[in-house]
Amino acid sequence: MTDLTIVKNDFCISTDKTKLDIDTIYTFLAKEAYWCLNIPKDRVLVSIENSLCFGVYTGSRQIGFARIISDFSTIAYLGDVFIVKDYRGMGLSKWLMETIMNHPDLQGLRRWILLTGDAHQLYRQFGWKEIADPSLWMELHNKNAYTK
Length: 148
Hints:
148 residues; six-stranded mixed β-sheet; 4 helices; Acyl_CoA_acyltransferase; Aminopeptidase; 6 strands; globular; alpha+beta; 26% strand; Acetyltransferase_Butenolide; GNAT family acetyltransferase
């Protein structure tokens, strides 16, 4: 796996998992991310362990995150994308997406997939579209997986 670290102005994007601030990621996902509210910390840890992760930083402070689940040959799922509130509107999500889409281990894939409830405009800038034929897709979704 190719580790990347890219610096731009006062910000950095890195795929080095040793830099990840697990508490920041967990807190955002469990308390702010509509797609996985109340996710247990152990689930976050396992998801990070089994994904290609991109951290966004200012200095040593983590301010953003995204992860890819992939076979690195045919398909990739993009998930858990966020920039913390105080740093939104600065172009960081676009830079994060550029970095992800240009990662050398994610080139030549047949399919990329993601789910979003509110960031369609961001992803469209990178060629993403609604599923052309939803009748081909199926899912098994437990929306209450993290509730007790």
